[in-house]
Amino acid sequence: MPRKSKNKFNIHGDIISIMREGWEQMAFATYREDYYEELSTHTWTLSNGYPTNATLGGGLHRYMMAKWYGDDVLRDLTEKGYVVDHMNNDHMDCRISNLEFLKYNRNVAKGQYLDKEAKQMRYRLAVSLFKDFSTGCYQITIGCNDHIVAKDSVGQERHINTIKILCNCDYLLVVLDAEAILTEYEAAGKFSIANLHCCDKRIEEAIDMKLTDEEKNQAFVIRDGVPYMVIGNGKNFLNSINYEKGWLPPGK
């Protein structure tokens, strides 16, 4: 008789959502056909906030890393003192783009500073980290909830909506770069990406739209049938900007 899980599973594109009665939020994993049946026929419980199944080796985050990087890599790095870091500090988010190996002490330090600062400052500057497994590169994405202005090559001011930074370096350096962005912005009200381990960047300007006094206090406005989010009035904010899959360093 087939094994039946006590969880509820749904697939949305390449994302598996996992829920169970009594859980306050969903868990997420990355879909792949070769392991989905195994994952979805076992029951996942919560242990210290981590989705866990003892039969499948423990935490869902470690299960995912074993499937994507291999059991030998997971075992070897564990023996060398590495843990699996949730890049956004959400233990329920076990998508492969949110997981990376990090030395234990560095993981603790990240939890004490970057994870706390990112959460505290998200309503001003929404800084997120991702890894694109297909390229091996990392991305730091920034949603500008504060009014961020940059100057272009001719000195003209540009109002910025989002910034995406591509990094082709060690994950620890990416963590330190994200810390530097938040630290500099909190201390000086501005930040520079010139000295970061950045090999490319993509900047999206805010839409220049004239708003009435009434519209300035609304969550959304409509133009030609298209809804636009109004940022900066306390009604809406950018929580996290997703990464761009397949983005490679220049020349590759």
UniProtKB/TrEMBL annotation:
A Pfam family assignment: HNH_3
Signal peptide from the UniProt entry: none
Source domain of life: Bacteria
InterPro entries, sorted: His-Me_finger_sf, HNH_nuc
Annotated HNH nuclease domain residues: 79-107
The protein's name in its UniProt record: HNH nuclease domain-containing protein
Biological source species: Aneurinibacillus aneurinilyticus
Phylogenetic classification of the source organism: Bacteria, Bacillati, Bacillota, Bacilli, Bacillales
